[in-house]
Amino acid sequence: MLAWIVTGVCLFYLLVNFLLLHWAGVKPLARFINDENHLNATLARLLKPRWPGSLGHSQVRDFLLQELLDLGFHTDRDEFVDGVAFTNVMGTINPEAPNFLLLCCHYDTENLTDVEGYLGATDGAVSCAILLNMAKTLGPYLREELRKRLDIGLALVFFDGHEPMPTDRKDSSALRGSKRFVRMETLPLESIELAIALNFIGAPAQAYMSHYDNTYMLHNRLAEIELDLRESGQLAPCHLLFQKLKDHDLPDDHYPFLDEGNLVY
Ligand SMILES: *[C@@H]1O[C@H](CO)[C@@H](O)[C@H](O)[C@H]1NC(C)=O
Ligand SMILES: *[C@@H]1O[C@H](CO)[C@@H](O)[C@H](O)[C@H]1NC(C)=O
Which of 100, 106, 205, 254 has the fewest CB atoms within 10 Å distance of its CB? Predict the structure, then answer.
């Protein structure tokens, strides 16, 4: 299972790398080295029960903040209390930029009483590890080239409070962190050019389809990049991940952004 996760996510972050560079209008200056050791080590730090109020939760929160700092990001934490304390974690490059690409995931797990030691691997952890691993892989570009482009910024947001608390209805995500982010405009909403929410990544049969008409072109661009990488032999063999198909969507941390009219993917 974990091996599949790693194969799948490596491709995914490679594709996001390309999207970011394409958006910034630059050609990659250097080959980016796939650092699977870092991905594995990062994931290992996240795979622990981390429901709000638990020790694992504060350890993971502190780990995310420290990693972002070490990777050269400006960091922000937004704490709020709703029964227990929640903390959204954000890392930015060019925090004053007028336009942002926002990539997000959630780091909390649900406090499941019927599953002891629930780790939430695909439900949050892998997505968070991908964001940090992408930041590591793109490090030289982010710290040198993107810093010179004050018109655009990158925001990595790790939402808290995604999962329902024991007092919430069980059949839905609570999305406390992302709703709060949008309500407080932790980043001005009008500066967010595109929000990409990563979740449920790592299943063996993983495939990505488009959920929104207005970002269908971007989705297809990623699908074409995957095909190019396959043709040039740069991908380990596996099934097609980005498919030029449309699918229905699931409520997730991008919903609050949609309500405000942001472009999401
Ligand atoms: C990362 O973890 C996966 C799954 O356990 C393993 O197959 C792979 O060899 C690991 N990669 C490295 C570089 O250690
Ligand atoms: C989490 O679950 C444990 C075990 O069921 C329980 O003792 C604890 O009160 C719960 N904590 C929260 C914050 O929900």
Answer: 205
